[in-house]
Amino acid sequence: MVSLDNPETLPVSLDDIKQAHQRIKNAIIRTPTLYSRTLSDLIGAGVWLKFENFQFTAAYKERGALNKLLSLDKVARERGVIAASAGNHAQGLAYHGNRLDIPVTIVMPVHTPTVKVEQTRGHGANIVLYGEQFDESLAHALELAEKDNLTFVHPFNDPAIIAGQGTVALEMLEDAPAIDTLVVPVGGGGLISGCAVVAKNADRPLDVIGAEAELYPSMYDYIKGKNLPCGGDTLAEGIAVQVPGQLTRRFVEALVDDILLVSESNIEHALSLIVQIEKTIVEGAGAAGLGALLSHPERFQGRQVGIIFSGGNIDTRLLANVLLRDLARSGRLARLRVRMKDQAGQLYKVARVFHDQQANIVEISYQRIFTTLPAKGLCADIECETRDQAHLRHLIDALREAGYGVTLIEPA
To answer: Which residue, of 72, 148, 160, 290, has the fewest CB within 10 Å?
Structure first.
């Protein structure tokens, strides 16, 4: 990676991050950095976890927002600040603005989920719903900042924000000095910029690896000189950024060793593993670091890797879908389409096969009309629980040996 910046010319230094930590440390949670024996065994590397989902607003964004607010002079504090955000930046800014008696206005797209709007409003922010897309909300926020003489607080393209986010790595390395590689979620680039400053100024400089959603490879494209498409419905909406920051790109060019793309299936699998193994809830962006390890295990063999659970704000219904889909991929939950005759006693006979194979039937639905089977034919979609892929294969083989046509309905 060719750097256009010497680290000494970047507008955030290690001293800036240390000063930011002194500024904010009494008003944020010093979240734990813990070693995961189970994930370490799974990956073949030492895995250390930073639980930023334990912050009051459940995300690291509080750090940068608070550092920015504390850097304002008295006049700017009295006038207030404004931001465009539908996520963690909005809540972090609103929460600490309310604490410090600084008026906060947040511009959100009109279709922002009500729960996010109300959570942000609950922290005392003035909410303006404007625009179908985030870019429209951002443009309107900049107009209001100019019109009402408010300080615009960018979510990542600001030295004070970057310095605040860098305090995550400062704490990690104090608590787990064995770490030799940091894997950091990348969206706009504020978190990885601050963390990279800390990592490259350590007693023994660490490798810094970005984890970016495969559907939104904006920083990857910029750094690698690629032109991969950028867009789509990603589970990691917190890092779904189409254009990385002008400022943060300089940090990434100068300090970051590599950026890895993470598929949606690996983000989902990582999130599910975190819930099952670490018994904690993260959002899609917060699972991207572990997703990178799952996507590229050979890259981390034998290393001591620090991963940041950057946030834990995820819709409960979406979380349930992710967990169930992962059960389906692992073979522990399956839907089988079983073809049988439309005669009395057929379901009983099929159910006996499930009983003999010790597979639990969860749900059954019939299809007689929308099928290519003969008029006297019947399809039954049977959702069932099995122990694993091997158990599922034995069940399918047993059904076929009993004379039934069986199709496994594959998860996405």
So the answer is: 148
Paired sense of beta strands 258-262 and 333-341, if any: unpaired
pLDDT at 196: 98
Residues 144 and 177 in one domain: no
DSSP 10: S
CA dihedral angle for residue 315, residue 47, residue 50, residue 217, rounded to 10 degrees: -60
- In angstroms, the CA 138 to CA 300 distance is 38
Give a three-class secondary structure readout of 344-399.
Answer: CCHHHHHHHHHHHCCCEEEEEEEECCCCCCCCCEEEEEEEEECCCHHHHHHHHHHH
Single residue among 280, 306, 325 that ends a domain in this structure: 325
| 346 and 258 within one domain | no
Sheet of 405-408, strand order: 360-367, 377-385, 333-341, 405-408
**Domain boundary at 325, 349, 376, which?**
325
Burial class for 197, CB neighbours closer than 10 Å (0-12, 13-18, 19+)? buried
Rg (CA), the chain: 25
SS3 (DSSP) at 215: coil
DSSP code per residue over 247-274: HHHHHHHHH--EEEEE-HHHHHHHHHHI
Same domain, 256 and 351: no
SS3 state at 83: strand
pLDDT along the chain (412 residues), means of 10: 62 97 98 98 97 97 98 96 92 97 95 84 94 86 96 96 98 98 96 98 94 96 94 91 92 97 96 97 96 95 97 92 91 92 86 95 80 68 94 96 90 64
Taking alpha carbons only, the member of 6, 8, 16 closest to residue 194 is 16
> Whole-angstrom Cα distance, residue 385 to residue 186?
37
pTM for this predicted structure: 0.89
Rounded to whole angstroms, the Cα distance separating 80 from 72 reads: 10
Does residue 341 belong to any structural domain of this protein? Answer: yes
**Residue 135 belongs to what domain range?**
81-149
Q: How many CB atoms lie under 10 A from the CB of residue 233?
A: 8
**C-alpha pair distances (Å), 148 with each of 70, 92, 99, 208:** 21, 22, 22, 40
Q: Is residue 104 domain-shared with residue 237, that is, in the same domain?
A: no
Dist. CA 211–CA 189, nearest whole Å: 11
Could you tell me the strand order of the sheet in which 181-185 lies? 33-35, 46-51, 304-309, 181-185, 207-213, 258-262
